Structure formats: C-alpha cells, structure tokens
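Researcher: Structure prediction, please.
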Amino acid sequence: MAASYLWQVTPPTLAVIADATANPASITWKLSGYSAQTAQLSLTATTSGTNPVCSSLSSPMSVLINPKAETVLTSCFDPVTSRSAKPFILKGGNPLPTGTPPQGEYLITPATPALYYQNGNYYFDPALVASPASFEISYKYTNQYNCPSITVPIVLEVRGPNPTCGSSMTDIRDNAIYLTKMIAGKCWMLENLRYGTKLNAPLQPQTDNCLIEKYCLSSDANCTAYGGLYQWDELIQYEATAGPGYQGVCPPGWHVPSQQEWQDMINAVANVTPGDGMAGGTLKDPYASFNALLNGVYYLNNLWAYTTGSPTATMFWTSTPSGTSHAVARGLNNISYSVSYYPSFKANAFPVRCVKD
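Model: Predicted structure follows.
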C-alpha cells in the first residue's frame, strides 16, 4: 500500500513549496518587514491501493519565521577613484551598523588591505592598492534574529596615481576638464568646480543623502560657466575624508583648500605678505590665470546676492571651520583690490577651487 502527500502552509503567503507532493518537501520561507511571524505547517497523507481511499490530516505544527534583514547599499563614495586619493569612509549601508561588534559590515572582493575598520567606521584607502584594479563592495547586515542579508555589490574602480600638475586636469568621475596652474607650490584649479547634481533652490536643500549636490545661477542653468555653489557641509561631504584637507566634492587626489593654502596663494599672487589688500586685482582679472568670477553667492538657502549691479562679488569656501556654525570664506568684489576674510554661516552656498593633494 502506497501513500501520496500534500504539504500546506497557513497563511500560504509565508512560504513557497517547490513540490508540495514530495516527502520530504523543500520549503522557502518568505517574510517582509522586521517582525517575526508564526506559520502553521500541516501534512495530508492519502493511501492508495485500498478501497475506500483513506486520507488523514496531521495536526498543524507552529513554525516561527524570523525575517532576513532588509539591507540596501547606496553608493556614498566615488565609483572611480585614484591611488592618489585620501582614505574615505564607506557610507550608504542601511540599516546603519549598531552594536559591538557592529551588526553591519562592508565586504570587498577581491580581498585587499585597502578596506579596514577603525574607530567605528569602515575606510577605503586607495593608496594601499598596489596597481589599478576594480573591486566589488557589498554590505552585510545581521539583524536581531541572527539572520544575515548581503546586498548586491557596487563596483569601485581604482586608477593609477594622478599625473603631475600641468595646464589642465581631468576629473576622472565625469571627464570634465579644468585649467590648472602651480601657485605658491600648490596646483590650483583655475575654474570653479562644476561636479554634482543640480538642485532647484530654494525648494531642495543640500543634505547628507549620498549625492553630491549643487546650486546653479539662473543665468548659468547647468553650472557650466560659473560652476556649482555648495553649502559647507555638502562641500566637505560631511567629513567622509579626514580634514583639514577634505576631499569633499573635489576630484579624487584633490581637496578643498584650507585657509592657510588660500593665504599662501594670496601672498604669492600679491608678492607681499600679507597680500590681502592687493591680490584681488590679479585674482579677478579676466586676463590673468585665476580669473575669479564675480557672479554672486547664495545666502542661507533663500537669497541670491551680488549677482548684478555694484558691487558684484563672490566668495570661495575654504575647508577651515570657524566655530561650530561658521567656516572661513575668502571674498572678492568689483570695486576693491582686496580679498576679504569672512567667517560665513555654513548654510551659505559658495563656489570652490580645488587644490591637488
């Protein structure tokens, strides 16, 4: 006498049974959300070869189903970098790591010492990559039920060291080309950085959301002529790289200049120390190399200023903070030869000229 079998799960939405008539059966449990749930598993056995046919339903067995972690990874780091770039914090894994050791961890293939854990953060140091290579970075999170989940990996490309300073440089992230020049022993961009995703001011604030965001002048809708304007926290990318030379929004192997680097450049241009009272004439001269564009600034995410009339002016961010809510900016206008020193609210949006590491 033989018997046939039929497995059932109640509610049926919690499981997929590959072949409900097989014994034993293979069951894949399905559960969304973050809470455990109980299912009822039962088995019906039916005899064959007897008359009449006999069927029997087992008592249901309760099965506790623990959920997998709902894990995602957003690229909060440049998808292409250079062996000249600074170490950067890996961000974008969600849920955020908690506990000791952390429930969330970043994984990399192939294995490399460039990925390391320090002081509660995972870092990637491109300088520790021996030669140009590509890596797959994924995020693994183990939830309170000890159920792990690993994300689809994001590809990170590490290219060779940056070339020496020349008359131009190429941002390897988007292939944008910028004029450059050695000033006071540092390689400076001679154009405002254009990199990032345009936001509509004032409706969209710049936030820590894994996008590099910028504002554009209404007269320069795509930031092609004047470049982008960045709030200070966005500029330094929320300290994802070590200061004071934050890479921030700058290309890999470049950084947001500090106040001291700005001062050294001002002194060199003026050929006097301090050069604050004289350097502005050369820095804003359209026929000189630096060509500081006086196209205005954006105050506190609600007011465009100094874009037309007199004075027209600009401010350039430095990476140097001034207290908790301010950072140092250097400013120029069309009626003065000086370069101002301005502790600005970090919520203001100014352009930036990057400096090679």
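Model: Residues 152 and 162 are 30 Å apart (CA to CA).
Researcher: Thanks, that helps.
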